[in-house]
Amino acid sequence: MAPNHPHLVPPIRIRLRELREARGLTQKELSAHAGTSESAIVKLERGETVRVELATLERLCAALSVEPGEMIVRGSVQRGGA
To answer: In terms of CATH architecture, what is 12-67?
Structure first.
């Protein structure tokens, strides 16, 4: 594990699946509302995507009617759909 450095940002994760399911949307429906591919949604939810374009994050937030701060939380990225 890397030593703690005060200038490094702590790990974040995106609460995409939780927010999507709370709104009763499928991955396909969310991708249509956000103007992105369904595979991008799948990869984000599985933690397989380590970089998210700001424009994509903004579209996802708009599609889910949330502010970016509600979507992003500190904590380790969960991989494998858990």
So the answer is: Orthogonal Bundle (1.10)
